[in-house]
Fold:
Amino acid sequence: MFLSVFDMFKVGIGPSSSHTIGPMVAAARFLDHLRAQPFAVAGVKATLHGSLAFTGVGHATDRATILGLAGFRADDYDVVKADAEMGRINAEQTVHPAGLASLVFNPKTDLEFNYGPALPGHANGMILKGTDGQGDVITQVTYYSIGGGFVLTADELASGKDANDDLPTAPFPFASAAEMLDMAAQSGKSVAEMKRANERVCQPGVDLDKGIMRIWEVMSACIDRGLVTDGILPGGLNVRRRAKGIHDSLLAERGLNQSPPHTINDWMSTYAMAVNEENAAGGQVVTAPTNGAAGVIPATIRYWLDHVPGATSSKVPDFMLTAAAIGGLIKFRASISGAECGCQAEVGSAAAMAAAGFCAVMGGTPEQVENAAEIALEHHLGMTCDPVRGLVQIPCIERNGLGAIKAVSAASLALRGDGHHLVPLDAAIETMRQTGEDMSEKYKETALGGLAVNVPNC
Structure:
């Protein structure tokens, strides 16, 4: 089993990895499909199903799909160019992707929200179609956005074949936390060292530390933007940005020696909220492992660097590698998709990853790292995904702050022990999977239950 740290942490745009980045990735893949066809295509159509339909407008799924079909990509997204192109597409009802002829596309009629049952493969399904000059469908592909910006076709999902199956065998191919601990014991290596060895074999020639620090730079810049930006978030809920105000008050209190010890939680929360306010505004973020949970890991790293004596940025790669190892286990053994398993799969996974990374850079053993991840995940089990009006704002923004606090607390508890504990991480992951399977669909990113229907005037 190999999932690169650069697959787990991807630069993209808000507000959602599964509902914004995923559809844009699917559209890019469909354009490649059209370019490979021996026949000419005159137009394109798109149908969104399941959670992509129910919360698609709030997550900008329609905009992401349209821009994806026009050739835009999440990793180099330019909002000014995107806004201009959306205006042109609405006026001219065509898209002009590179390498293809101008394609007929009317956003009002060629993009459909299907509110019926979800497609069979996953809660986040979409069908992209190519049409001839008469408007008849001549080719189509079904895509599933499976969380964290990962996309599979229906055929790929059915085959079970992983995109990394053809890579060289990783030297530490752990597929469970138990195997991870066994390999660590036998090799004498840390989780980060094993993950680093896997990356170097499976991705030779990649400057690993430089790439990871680039990811951290984007995360850190996202925090910084969020801490200086105020105003109202888009979407109609009139949610006010709060990170800047909280941060300003925390800075004013510094040096007064009057703040109670628990104020450190406010620092962690405001770092996370800064990221998720940027995400809600459609800004540049890093999936960690998803956009909805993008604030937990950056907030934990910033807390460590700025508030923990002895912290050094040279250890950020170890944090990220450890976190990615835990995230890979959760993704392959359960899910990181809120539409599949609720928010336990998003903020819960992020908290487990952050707890593991923080524990590692604080000198934790592999056993303590595994314990930290288990504690954090265990205490997110059962958490629903019920975004008000389908927007990644309430409860998502504050929830990231609490996820970071839980991550640090979980790591601290693990570091107080010797790594021995009753509930293994593998059991917590399996419990999360089973809980998600049993969870009502209205609590899985459909905005049909929970806070989404109980907040007045929403």
